[in-house]
Structure formats: C-alpha cells, structure tokens
Amino acid sequence: MASENTRSIKLGAFVLVGLILLLGGLYLLGTKRDLFSHTLMVSARFTEVNGLRTGDNVRYAGIDVGTVKGIRILSDTVVLVTMLVRADEARHIRTDAVARIASDGLMGSKLVALEAGDGSGGPIAEGAELHSLHGLDTDAMLRTLSRSNDNLVAITTDLRALTHGLNAEGGLPALFKDTVLVQDVRAAVADAAATAANARDLTARVDRLVQGLQAGQGALGALLADTATDRRFRDLVTALQQAAGPLLHASAELDRFTTGLHAPGGLGHVLVDDTAVTQGLRRVVANLDTSSATLNEDLRALQRNWFFRRYFKEKEKEKEKR
Amino acid sequence: MAAGTWNDARTMLAEIGGLSRFTGRFFREAFRPRFEWGELLQRSYVNGYLSFPLVGITAFIMGIVLTVQSRPTLARFGAEAMLPSMVAISVVREIAPVITALICAGKIGSSMGAELGSMRVTEQIDAMEVSGTNPFRYLAVTRIWSTVLMVPLLVVMADAIAIWACFIGVNMQRSVSWALFQQQVLDAVVFSDVVPALIKSVFFGLAIGVVGCYKGFHTEKGTAGVGQAAHSAVVTASLLVFIIDLVAVQVTGILGFN
Q1: What is residue B65's predicted lDDT score, i.e. its pLDDT?
Q2: CA distance A261 to A270
Q3: Helix-strand-coil split of chain B, %, nearest 5
Q4: B42 and A107: CB-CB below 8 Å?
Q5: A64: closest CA of chain B, how far (Å)
Q6: Which domain covers residue B162, as residue numbers?
Q7: Domain boundaries, chain A
C-alpha cells in the first residue's frame, strides 16, 4: 500500500511538472502574442506588405509593442493591416505616427515599424488608422548594390590601369629615382628661397620708405608734409569749382545751340537732311561754277581789250619790279 | 513467389483490419464507466514516470547535438544568433515529438506486447473473462489511456529539456544570457508550432498503446509468440509514428500552420 502511495506521489509530481511546463510555456507564448494584456487595435493601409504575416511584430522606437492581427486585401492597390498594440505602450504613440513595412535584419522576418511624427496628434485610440509609408525594398537594395558593384569594378579597373601606368618605365617611381631631377628640384627650391629673401628685403625697404614719407623726409615727403602747398592746392580746387559753374552754363548753351541746329527746320538739319535744299545748293554751286568760268573768260577778253590793255601791262611791270 | 507475396499481403491486410477493429473497440469502451482508475494510475506511472529518465536523457543529448551540429552551417551564413530560434522550432515541431514517440514505441510498446502476450499465452486473460472481468477494459483501455495521456506529457518535458540543452550548447562556444536566449526562443516559437505537435503526440500515444495492446492480446504460439509480439509491437508502432507524422505534416500544411 505504501509502495502504491509512493508511486501515486511520484506520478502526481511527474504530471504536475509536465502540466506546469506546458501551461507555463503556453502562458509565455500567449504573453508574447499579447493574449493576456490589454491591447488597442489600430490599422494602416499599404500598397504592398512585402511578405508580412499575421503574428509578426509591431515595433515602435525599436521596441516590440504589439503584433500583426490580420492582413486583408481591400482592392488591387490597397492592403489593410490591423495591429494589436499594448495599451501601456500605445499611450506614447501619436496619431501622426507613420507605419511602414520593415525587416528584422537582412534575413529576419518582416515587421511593421511605427515611426513618430511631429508629435502634433494625440495618443492613438482604439480603431485608429495610421498613415503608411513605403518600406525598404530588398530587391531594390540588391539592384542598387549590383550597380554599385559594377561601378566599383570599373573604378578598380581604372585604378589598376593607372597604377600600372605609374609603375611602368618612366612613371612616377622613375621620377623619384631620377637624381638629375632631384638636383633640379633642389636648385629650384634654393632659387625660390632666394626669391623669398629678396621679396622680404624689398618689403622691408618699402616699409622704411613709407615710414620716411610719413615722417616728411625727402622731396615727396616734404611736399606731402607742407601745409602751405596743401592750402594752395585747396584754393586751386575751390577756384576750379567756381569756374565750373560758368563752364557748365556755356556748355548748356552750346548744347542748346547744337540741338537747335539739328532740330527740324534748323540750319544743320536743312543742310544735312533736306534733300531739296541740298539739290538747290548743288544747282547754285554748279551755276556759280559756270558763271565763274564765264566771268573768267570775259576777264581774259577784257585784258586783251585795247581800252584796258595798258592798265594790265603796268600792273605786270610793278609785280616784276617787286 | 506470387503466392508468398499474396499471403504476406493478406496477412498485412488482416493486421490492418484487426488493428482498426481493436481501435474501434477501444473508443467504444474508453468512455464508458466504470473506469479502472487504479490500473490507469499504475500504467501511467510505468509508462510515463518510468519512461521519463530515458526520454529526458535522449532529449538532452538531442538538444546539445542539434545545437552543436547546426552551429557551423549557421555560422557560414553569419546567422549564428538564430541558433536558439532554429533549434527551438525544430525541437518543438518535430524532434521532441518524434524522438519521444519512438522511445515510447520501443520501451512501452514492447513491454505491453510482452506483458499482455505472456498473459495471453498463460491464459490469464482467458481466466479474467471466465471470472466475469472485462480484460479489454481492465488491461487494454487503461494502457492505451495511459499512453495517450503520458506521451504528450513526456513530449512537453522533452521540449523543455532539449531547449535547456540547447542553451547549454549555445553557451559552450559563446556567452548568451538566459534572458536573451528565452526571448529568442519565445520570439521564434508560436502557438501554431506547439498545438499541432501536442495533437500529434496524442495520436502517437494512441498508436503506441493500441499497437502494444493489440499485439499482446493476439499473441499465439506460446512463449516464442511473446517475443514476436513485443518485436512486432515496436516495429509496427514505430512505423505508425512516422506515418502519423507524415499525415500531420500534410494536415498542418493544409491548415496553414507550416
């Protein structure tokens, strides 16, 4: 009987331990899935969920605050994701928070990451719908990585060609080994040092010169330091300023005259732009030319006239005498 | 040759038919009062409590071996941190139920076949019938109930021990706190891993009990038949464990638990 009791106790302990393990494990799993805590149900709409599954985590500020409750397709471009967020953590999440599909590491499962907005909204309530954002697409990342790799290959190829060229005969290492070049460089450096010394000396001289001028030394210094010269110069400037008034007036008058000359009806305008007057003047000049030629001819005839011949001969004799 | 194959096929079909009828009879008798509580506790003690050391040691070794063997593969992908998650899921979903069921098939199935077979060849079962006691209710129903109840319990314990062994295995090469380890395991394991495994282990227990009792009840040819009954019980129960596991995988896949 005692043996049977012992067996019953052992069996009872065995069953108890097994049940504790089972119920404890189920409780821990349930706690992890928010089965025994007060939660709020919120939702967000996405164009795609990238393999998100029911039960995946909801993360806010890097902390798991809930789980995905359900995923439902609403239309060809809208997927509704409902989430259970623990009430304790939900009071810190604002309605302007943004949900996006993220990944738990490169190989980890998907999750919904909630990112804080500008804090303008109030705490989320039951049934709140959050704004959503496109998450990082692994395929897009891999495509970018592939392009980066291509670029890297091109860069390393160019770099290899460059280093190959530098290492080739006559390249940069050869320059380093060229003793003549080294001597030239040393000489150039020495020249540069001498030039710098000269420049320093020149600067010192200029400095001394300026100091001498400021102290009134030399002719230029005396001129600069002479107060009488300065006064005469000021008087000259004042006289020039006084003379500038009449000059300006004369200039204005001259300007008015030339303006009138070139104005329509003015002499300049008539002479330059009035073609009728121009043609008339040309005719007058032509007539004058003709008349002078005729007059010249008449005068020659007059010289040969017996009545005036004696007068012209006496005129020639006086000219010869002079 | 053809006649021998036909005879083998007939024998196999007869076994399946007899096993099915035996299972049907168990379900008819299993829920009828009056229960043999004393015998049930006795069988549970033998099949459950006394099997625990063997199951526990095996689970511990499996947990460590699985952890140590998986580490290099995961390390190649830089995913060594996923070791607790991977081992926990493997243990809970598959390793612990199947290993426990196979151990029980070997230990419990053979003992049932041999014990009941001995009672059959020594005509103790016939004597019980003559004395008005229902030997099926007293011997078979209690044993089958005990395996149905104890195998899932052993599976839960094997889960716990294997995961604990995994923690030791992980800490053999790098340091991971129990809190972090527990967090990683709980992150990875979900109800859809635990519940199908428990349901599966109930069927494992049912198969082990039914096969052990059936083989014992149908022992023939004297003491030589006792050994054959024990041997046959182990082989058939182990085969059934794998068949049930295969069906369970398909069913859980169809129900979307995989």
Answers
A1: 94
A2: 9
A3: 90, 0, 10
A4: no
A5: 11
A6: 35-254
A7: 1-32, 39-136, 274-322
Chain A environment of B186 (Cβ under 8 Å) = 28-29, 32
- Using a CB-CB distance cutoff of 8 angstroms, which residues of chain B are in contact with residue A32? 186-187
Facing residues of A102 across strands?
Answer: A111
d(CA A101, CA A111): 6
Indicate which of A4, A7, A14 best probes the interface with B, i.e. most B CBs within 10 Å of its own CB.
Answer: A14
Q: Contact B63/B164 with Cβ under 8 angstroms?
A: yes
CA B196 to chain centre: 14
Task: Say if residue B34 is preceded by a cis peptide, omega within 30 of 0.
Answer: yes
| A55-75 pLDDT tens trace | 888 999 888 888 898 999 998
Angle separating helix axes A306-321 and A275-303, nearest 10 degrees: 90
Q: How many residues does chain A have?
A: 322
ipTM comes to 0.81
Q: How many domains does chain B have?
A: 1
What does pLDDT average to over chain B?
Answer: 90
B98 found inside a domain: yes
pTM of this structure? 0.62
Q: Is the dihedral of CA A39, A40, A41, A42 positive or negative?
A: negative
What number is the average pLDDT over the span B53-68? 95
Question: What b/e readout covers A288-317, taking b as 16+ CB neighbours within 10 angstroms?
Answer: eeeeeeeeeeeeeeeeeeeeeeeeeeeeee
Domain annotation covers residue B88: yes
Interchain pair B190, A26: CB under 8 A: no
Amino acid at B201: S
